[in-house]
From TrEMBL:
GO terms for cellular component: plasma membrane. It is a multi-pass membrane protein. Residues 72-230 form the Glycosyltransferase RgtA/B/C/D-like domain. The chain crosses the membrane at residues 19-36, 84-109, 115-133, 140-159, 185-204, 216-235, 279-297, 318-335, 341-358, 379-399, 405-423, 443-464. The keyword Glycoprotein does not apply. GO terms for biological process: lipopolysaccharide biosynthetic process. It is found in: Cell membrane. It comes from Gimesia aquarii. This is Dolichyl-phosphate-mannose-protein mannosyltransferase.
């Protein structure tokens, strides 16, 4: 079989209609992430760790104690400089995650469009912009949304590296992976995806590709550059015992194959609790796109066959198309958003692989352009298959923190987009070109109306909620009340007292942000041996101390050295409650207790 030269093919031009649609959905996704941000504050344990760099001097390490256990330094560094310019309020602490979340939306569109076509880009854009899971964590000072952005960009750059002879792509891919690796310790994931997706692609098309060793060479260059970028992080860990210390800490959260099913079930429940109106609207809009694509495919086949009979124009036929396209909405009502995306994503990836294999098997008498394009789509599909299936199988091996599913969720967006792209490819026309043709889009409004009606009915049945907009400032309010009570008890300024925080980085951050300079985290009670005579000393404990058996044991030994000042009621947000071993009731109160050292 003759070998095929992979050509640099021009992508489908962006029409005015597509540009307007992309801008509207991008602004909608950005608005959902930014609205009501004043009701959000640092609350999660890890958020307090990442956002506290600014509260420590260089002599104190310029970071929260033990920060290296939780994440590499890049995100804390970005938050630190964001706070330098914007202060310690919501915008200063959440800006890096917000930007990563907002930029992920157009990036998902660009990647899906280049891989599978304009309709695929539209679907990916919609799902990314209106994903409830992504909305929630875009408004949190955590690493996962930033990692997702780097992961998506890295896999795309790896795809470009395999297809182009230009060495700038492997360099950019290596730099991007290194940045993701410096954000979270599993930032090497794109390397695994790039290798796992490349191997079956090279094997299947080994007779049609002229340079197979080049792909391995480029992957090796990418891996070397990524490691060099991450090397300063590894060197920085040496003073704490090396990466083995971090790995040992992470191993505590591995549930293994014996806990896979329980972890998987809990993650499904987590996603259901996070679902809300944006996700339902997103699936509804995807159904609308699928509806228009199916109608376009029907019209194109009529034009090819030159058979426009009266039966083809039947209103009932197009209504049936609309109802079929709305099946994902019905599945969402029964199963939930994420299970529906899992099914659509798997179907889209499978069909793309089948479609590409069919066309690359065509004889050389057909155009090289078609074969080259099919090879490129096939590579994208294999990379996506490795990403989707790999994370589907491995994510539940870890403790079921919902944020860990963000990388898999991004692959599900792209898989669903691949389904839309497969339908568009079969019609051999662009969806936006079809909608711009007044002659061809006749009757397209009828199936569209069917989908819209089902969407409206679904939204009426489902509860209206935007989980990302729920207040998440409980710890900030408690911190304010603590400082007020200390001021009232001492009769002096809060700066004339010392406040120690046990195992609550979120409380530590909020107390520092509200102006209490003499606040510090502690992991033991050694401070009792050096109490100052000139000012009172307080200890503040919360839910993590209450759940720590070691703390309870040590505290009972020194209980006589403390007197209870006050207990504060704290109602954790859903984001925090989803991290607990047993999901508590929404109205459950966690005590935060203030003691004074005697």
């Amino acid at each position: 079989m003759p070998q095929i030269e992979i050509k640099e093919l021009e992508s489908t031009p962006i029409t005015r209609l597509e540009f307007i649609t992309v801008v509207i959905l991008f602004l909608l996704g950005g608005s959902f992430r930014c609205l009501f941000l004043s009701e959000t504050a640092i609350e999660h344990f890890d958020e307090g760790v990442y956002a506290s760099n600014l509260w420590f001097t260089p002599e104190q390490g310029a970071e929260y104690p033990g920060r290296y256990f939780y994440a590499p330094p890049l995100l804390p560094f970005l938050i630190e400089w964001s706070m330098v310019f914007l202060g310690s309020g919501s915008w200063g602490t959440f800006l890096p995650s917000l930007l990563s979340g907002i930029l992920t939306v157009p990036l998902a569109w660009w990647v899906a469009r280049n891989w599978f076509g304009p309709a695929a880009g539209l679907v990916a854009l919609t799902l990314a912009g209106l994903s409830d899971l992504h909305l929630v964590y875009s408004r949190a000072a955590l690493t996962d949304v930033t990692l997702g952005f780097f992961l998506l960009l890295s896999v795309y750059l790896i795809w470009k590296s395999y297809l182009s002879r230009d060495w700038k792509w492997p360099v950019l891919a290596g730099l991007t992976i290194g940045a993701g690796w410096a954000t979270k310790y599993n930032g090497w994931l794109p390397l695994a995806v790039g290798l796992s997706g490349m191997l079956p692609w090279l094997f299947i098309y080994r007779r049609q590709l002229d340079s197979k060793t080049s792909c391995f060479l480029r992957w090796s260059v990418i891996a070397c550059i990524a490691f060099l970028v991450w090397l300063p992080v590894l060197m920085g860990l040496q003073k704490w015992g090396g990466y083995s210390v971090v790995a040992a800490n992470h191993s505590r959260y591995v549930v293994g194959f014996s806990g896979w099913l329980d972890s998987f079930s809990r993650q499904v429940d987590n996603h259901k609790l996070l679902e809300g109106t944006p996700g339902y609207i997103g699936i509804g809009l995807v159904c609308l796109v699928l509806c228009l694509l199916l109608h376009m495919l029907k019209v194109q086949r009529q034009l090819v066959l030159n058979a426009r009979s009266q039966t083809d124009r039947s209103t009932w036929n197009v209504i049936i198309v609309g109802v079929l396209a709305a099946l994902p909405l019905i599945a969402v009502y029964v199963l939930g958003v994420s299970p529906t995306l899992a099914v659509l994503g798997f179907l889209g990836i499978f069909l793309q692989l089948l479609f590409a294999s069919k066309h690359t098997g065509q004889k050389q008498s057909e155009t090289d352009e078609l074969d080259s394009e099919s090879l490129k789509r096939s590579l994208a599909a294999w990379l996506l298959a490795a990403w989707f299936c790999g994370l589907f199988l491995t994510t539940p091996l870890y403790y079921p923190y919902p944020r860990l599913t963000i990388p898999w969720t991004i692959s599900a967006w792209l898989g669903t987009a691949a389904l839309a792209g497969w339908i568009e490819q079969r019609s051999r026309s662009s969806l936006f070109s079809f909608l711009s043709d007044k002659e061809k889009k006749r009757f397209s409004f009828i199936p569209a109306i069917s989908v819209i009606m089902i969407l409206i009915i679904t939204l009426c049945i489902m509860p209206w909620s935007v989980v990302a907009w729920q207040p998440r400032n409980g710890l900030a309010k408690v911190s304010q009340n603590v400082l007020t009570d200390i001021r009232a008890e001492t009769g002096a300024g809060v700066s004339d007292s010392i406040l120690y925080i046990y195992a609550e980085p979120g409380l530590f951050f909020n107390l520092k942000a509200q102006g209490h300079s003499l606040t510090g985290p502690v992991a033991d009670f050694e401070f009792l041996n050096s109490l100052p005579n000139s000012m009172p000393v307080y200890l503040l404990t919360g839910p993590h101390a209450a759940a720590d058996a070691d703390f309870q044991k040590k505290f009972q030994q020194v209980r006589d050295h403390f007197e209870l000042v006050k207990s504060y009621d704290y109602s954790p947000s859903l984001l925090v409650r989803l991290n607990q071993a047993h999901l508590n009731n929404e109205t459950e109160i966690e005590p935060i207790i203030l003691y004074r050292a005697k």
